[in-house]
Amino acid sequence: MNDTTTLPPRAPTGQKLRKARLWLRFLIMLLLVGLLGTGLLFFQTFKRSILSQITEQIRNTVPTVATGKAVLAEWQPRQIATGTARAVKGADLSAEVGGIVDEISFESGQTVQAGTVLLRLRPNDDPAKLQQLQAAADLAAITLERDQRQLAAKAISQATVDTDIATLKGARAQVAAQQAMMAQKIVRAPFTGRLGLRQVDIGQYLAPGTAIVTLQQLDPMYVDFYLPQQALEKLQVGQPVQVTSDAYPDRIFSGKITSLNARVDPASRMVQVRATVPNADNALLPGMFLTVSVTSGPVQSLVTIPNMAVAYNPYGSLVYVVRPEKDKADKDVLVAYQQFITTGDARGDQVSVVKGLKDGDVIVTAGQIKLHNGSVIAVDNSIEPPGPNAPVPRDR
Fold first, then answer.
1. What average pLDDT is seen over the chain?
2. Residue 252's CB: how many other CB atoms inside 10 A?
3. 293, 255, 238: which is closest to 78 by C-alpha?
4. With 70 as the cut, is the pLDDT of residue 99 above it?
5. CA–CA dist 26, 40 (Å, integer)
6. 312 and 258 both lie in a single domain
7. Cα–Cα–Cα angle for 227, 390, 314, nearest 5°?
8. CA–CA dist 319, 337 (Å, integer)
9. C-alpha dihedral over 54, 59, 60, 64, to 10 degrees?
10. At 291, which CATH number?
11. Are residues 168 and 115 located together in one domain of the fold?
């Protein structure tokens, strides 16, 4: 009997090759992932190193700023408003009746006296009608005189004389009516003032009410402006005002409040105020836009700083206060600290400080954007911007 040994079946050669290829691909993928992870880790480490160096360099860089001092100044409280110039007397002249322009007796821009004839309309047959009515009135007067003598001789009745008197009065009334109608065809200056531009020509037909020329009395000049109702307590007639115009940037016109409106506008809660300003040289013209400053209250002593030194934020206003200190190497340095303040009224490029600063405090006026609380700074006041309390805007 023969012994026969049974061997397990061998895997086909092709299947072994496929498994080997799969393992090789898996190892290659792991190697690539490892290399990618190592590269990312190295890149992040390198980036942090560079950022750390840049941050350290920025921290070691001393920013240059401009500084100024908080100054105790005398401030006169004022109410500022925009106003409009208005002539004390002003009118657009026109004829009361229609007609053809027959004569123009003025020039544009001319100064005229009250009562000066400016324009005449064609009279047509008006003088003839006046003569006719005047003749009828003269006849009525003669008739009345004759009948009165006859009444004295008792030749006529009193009723006849009464009729003559009524006839005379009616005739004279017609004469006066004709004269008034003829006067309506003559346009005169109602007051002394300066004329504007002529709007009509000789031979032109004028309908009743057509504007001929404007007449304005320019000295003095009214200035109308509005202030909030909260200012009523500080306003009174006779209070001084100062008026400026962009047409005359270097000039201030002084005047006084002459009247306050009897009501407050319910829509805006503003009260209308009128001031009178001398205008001898006719520099101000009706309709001009003006800035009005009303003096109110006693003079106050306030700490003031340039407005550009203040950083206005929703959580409060702050400035950078500069203080001398010693650094780690015992060297003298200047350090800027944030200081919250309470601001008051502003005037020009200056603002008053109610709380947070005192007279003589040194503050940063330019370059604040480069600072943080506790920054060591260098000062260069050659670049300090101006900060007047009454700047004069100029177009360049």
1. 84
2. 11
3. 293
4. yes
5. 21
6. no
7. 65
8. 8
9. 120
10. 2.40.30.170
11. yes
Residue whose token pair is 């008051």: 344
Question: What is the bridge-based pairing of β-strands 375-379 and 300-306?
Answer: unpaired
Answer whether residue 5 shows pLDDT above 80.
Answer: no
pLDDT tens for each residue of 164-179: 899 989 989 999 998 8
What pTM, to 2 d.p., does this model score? 0.60
| 133 within a domain of the structure (yes/no) | yes
Decide if 366 contacts 65 (C-beta within 8 A).
Answer: yes
What is the average per-residue pLDDT within 169-195?
Answer: 89
Average pLDDT (118-138) is 89
pLDDT at position 258 is 92
Q: Please report whether residue 318 resides in a domain.
A: yes
The residue segments making up the domain with residue 279 are 79-86+217-295
Residue 379 lies in a domain: yes
- Domains in the chain: how many in total? 3
Domain assignment of residue 35, yes or no: no
Q: 168 exposed, middle or buried (CB, 10 Å; 0-12, 13-18, 19+)? A: buried
pLDDT tens per residue, range 241-277: 999 998 888 899 999 999 999 899 899 899 999 999 9
Instruction: Compute the average pLDDT of residues 274-300.
Output: 88
Which is it for strands 332-347 and 316-326: parallel, antiparallel or unpaired? antiparallel
Q: Which residue has the tokens 């009706």?
A: 286
Residues 344, 280, single domain; the answer is no
13 pLDDT above the threshold of 80? no
* Shared domain check, 376 and 306: yes
Lateral strand order in the sheet of 99-104? 186-188, 117-121, 99-104, 205-206
Q: What's the whole-number mean pLDDT along residues 362-382?
A: 85
